[in-house]
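Feature request disguised as a bug: please show the residue count (162) next to SAM-dependent methyltransferase in the output. Example input:
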Amino acid sequence: MANFVLNHVADPAAAAAELRRVVRPGGAVAVTIWPSPRPPLQRLWGEAVAAAGVETPTDLPRLAPEHDFPRTEEGLTGLLAAAGLTDVRCVTLAWEHRADPEAWWAGPANGIGTIGLALERQPTAVRERIRQQYDLLSARYRDTDAQLALPTAALLACGRVD
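Example output, currently without the count:
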Protein backbone atom coordinates (compact mmCIF):
# COMPACT_ATOMS: atom_id res chain seq x y z
CA MET A 1 0.00 0.00 0.00
CA ALA A 2 1.40 3.36 -1.05
CA ASN A 3 -0.92 5.84 0.64
CA PHE A 4 -0.48 9.22 -1.12
CA VAL A 5 3.11 8.30 -2.04
CA LEU A 6 2.76 8.85 -5.79
CA ASN A 7 1.79 12.48 -5.06
CA HIS A 8 5.26 13.08 -3.62
CA VAL A 9 7.76 11.42 -5.95
CA ALA A 10 9.62 12.92 -8.90
CA ASP A 11 8.61 10.13 -11.29
CA PRO A 12 5.27 8.46 -10.46
CA ALA A 13 5.60 5.95 -13.33
CA ALA A 14 9.00 4.80 -12.08
CA ALA A 15 7.68 4.59 -8.51
CA ALA A 16 4.71 2.49 -9.66
CA ALA A 17 7.07 0.20 -11.58
CA GLU A 18 9.22 -0.17 -8.47
CA LEU A 19 6.16 -1.07 -6.40
CA ARG A 20 5.37 -3.77 -8.95
CA ARG A 21 8.98 -5.02 -8.92
CA VAL A 22 9.15 -5.50 -5.13
CA VAL A 23 5.83 -7.35 -4.82
CA ARG A 24 6.02 -11.10 -5.32
CA PRO A 25 3.98 -12.78 -8.06
CA GLY A 26 0.41 -13.24 -6.88
CA GLY A 27 0.65 -10.17 -4.66
CA ALA A 28 -1.14 -6.88 -5.02
CA VAL A 29 -0.23 -3.21 -5.12
CA ALA A 30 -2.65 -0.57 -3.86
CA VAL A 31 -2.16 3.19 -4.07
CA THR A 32 -4.04 6.36 -3.24
CA ILE A 33 -3.62 9.84 -4.71
CA TRP A 34 -5.46 13.14 -4.54
CA PRO A 35 -7.70 13.64 -7.58
CA SER A 36 -8.05 16.47 -10.03
CA PRO A 37 -10.00 18.63 -9.93
CA ARG A 38 -9.10 19.12 -6.32
CA PRO A 39 -11.80 18.84 -3.67
CA PRO A 40 -12.31 21.63 -1.08
CA LEU A 41 -9.81 20.06 1.34
CA GLN A 42 -6.96 20.68 -1.10
CA ARG A 43 -8.33 23.91 -2.63
CA LEU A 44 -8.68 25.84 0.63
CA TRP A 45 -4.99 26.78 0.86
CA GLY A 46 -4.72 28.14 -2.68
CA GLU A 47 -7.98 30.03 -2.25
CA ALA A 48 -6.67 31.70 0.92
CA VAL A 49 -3.43 32.71 -0.80
CA ALA A 50 -5.29 34.12 -3.82
CA ALA A 51 -7.86 35.94 -1.65
CA ALA A 52 -4.98 37.60 0.20
CA GLY A 53 -3.73 38.94 -3.13
CA VAL A 54 -0.56 36.85 -3.04
CA GLU A 55 0.89 34.97 -5.98
CA THR A 56 2.24 31.50 -5.30
CA PRO A 57 6.00 31.46 -5.98
CA THR A 58 6.69 29.93 -9.38
CA ASP A 59 9.85 28.12 -8.27
CA LEU A 60 8.21 25.80 -5.75
CA PRO A 61 8.81 22.08 -6.32
CA ARG A 62 6.57 20.80 -9.09
CA LEU A 63 6.31 17.53 -10.94
CA ALA A 64 8.00 17.73 -14.33
CA PRO A 65 5.33 17.75 -17.07
CA GLU A 66 6.82 14.66 -18.73
CA HIS A 67 6.29 12.70 -15.49
CA ASP A 68 2.77 13.91 -14.77
CA PHE A 69 -0.38 11.93 -15.46
CA PRO A 70 -4.13 12.64 -15.27
CA ARG A 71 -5.30 12.55 -11.65
CA THR A 72 -8.46 10.68 -12.61
CA GLU A 73 -9.64 7.08 -12.23
CA GLU A 74 -8.60 6.46 -15.84
CA GLY A 75 -5.24 8.18 -15.41
CA LEU A 76 -4.28 6.25 -12.29
CA THR A 77 -5.49 2.97 -13.82
CA GLY A 78 -3.32 3.68 -16.86
CA LEU A 79 -0.28 4.48 -14.73
CA LEU A 80 -0.52 1.18 -12.84
CA ALA A 81 -1.24 -0.83 -15.99
CA ALA A 82 1.78 0.74 -17.70
CA ALA A 83 3.86 -0.34 -14.69
CA GLY A 84 2.93 -3.95 -15.48
CA LEU A 85 0.12 -4.54 -13.00
CA THR A 86 -2.89 -6.56 -14.15
CA ASP A 87 -6.56 -6.47 -13.24
CA VAL A 88 -6.17 -2.81 -12.27
CA ARG A 89 -9.22 -1.17 -10.72
CA CYS A 90 -9.73 2.34 -9.42
CA VAL A 91 -12.50 3.99 -7.41
CA THR A 92 -13.08 7.44 -6.00
CA LEU A 93 -13.54 7.60 -2.24
CA ALA A 94 -15.30 10.65 -0.79
CA TRP A 95 -15.57 11.73 2.84
CA GLU A 96 -15.50 14.71 5.19
CA HIS A 97 -12.13 15.39 6.76
CA ARG A 98 -12.71 16.73 10.26
CA ALA A 99 -10.07 18.88 11.93
CA ASP A 100 -9.60 21.64 14.43
CA PRO A 101 -9.11 24.87 12.41
CA GLU A 102 -5.98 25.78 14.42
CA ALA A 103 -4.46 22.34 13.93
CA TRP A 104 -5.25 22.43 10.21
CA TRP A 105 -3.54 25.82 9.87
CA ALA A 106 -0.52 24.66 11.93
CA GLY A 107 0.82 22.28 9.26
CA PRO A 108 1.39 24.85 6.52
CA ALA A 109 2.27 27.52 9.10
CA ASN A 110 5.14 25.25 10.14
CA GLY A 111 6.40 24.66 6.61
CA ILE A 112 4.65 21.39 5.78
CA GLY A 113 3.86 20.75 2.13
CA THR A 114 4.20 23.02 -0.87
CA ILE A 115 1.83 25.53 0.71
CA GLY A 116 4.08 25.55 3.78
CA LEU A 117 7.08 26.39 1.60
CA ALA A 118 5.09 29.22 0.02
CA LEU A 119 4.07 30.59 3.43
CA GLU A 120 7.63 30.45 4.77
CA ARG A 121 8.77 32.78 1.98
CA GLN A 122 6.26 35.47 2.85
CA PRO A 123 6.88 38.42 5.18
CA THR A 124 4.98 38.31 8.47
CA ALA A 125 2.35 40.82 7.31
CA VAL A 126 1.59 38.73 4.22
CA ARG A 127 1.34 35.50 6.25
CA GLU A 128 -1.11 37.30 8.54
CA ARG A 129 -3.23 38.34 5.52
CA ILE A 130 -3.27 34.76 4.27
CA ARG A 131 -4.25 33.57 7.75
CA GLN A 132 -7.12 36.08 7.83
CA GLN A 133 -8.37 34.76 4.49
CA TYR A 134 -8.01 31.18 5.71
CA ASP A 135 -10.18 32.05 8.71
CA LEU A 136 -12.80 33.72 6.49
CA LEU A 137 -12.85 31.00 3.83
CA SER A 138 -12.78 28.08 6.24
CA ALA A 139 -15.79 29.45 8.15
CA ARG A 140 -18.15 27.94 5.57
CA TYR A 141 -16.81 24.48 6.46
CA ARG A 142 -17.22 24.79 10.22
CA ASP A 143 -19.78 22.59 11.90
CA THR A 144 -21.80 23.29 15.04
CA ASP A 145 -18.74 22.41 17.18
CA ALA A 146 -16.61 24.98 15.27
CA GLN A 147 -14.57 22.13 13.79
CA LEU A 148 -13.75 21.98 10.09
CA ALA A 149 -15.71 19.45 8.06
CA LEU A 150 -13.92 19.63 4.72
CA PRO A 151 -15.30 17.60 1.82
CA THR A 152 -12.55 15.64 0.16
CA ALA A 153 -11.86 12.68 -2.08
CA ALA A 154 -9.08 10.32 -3.03
CA LEU A 155 -8.48 7.85 -5.80
CA LEU A 156 -7.82 4.29 -4.62
CA ALA A 157 -6.39 1.88 -7.17
CA CYS A 158 -5.12 -1.65 -6.95
CA GLY A 159 -3.65 -4.20 -9.30
CA ARG A 160 -2.09 -7.64 -9.26
CA VAL A 161 1.43 -8.79 -9.96
CA ASP A 162 1.41 -11.86 -12.22
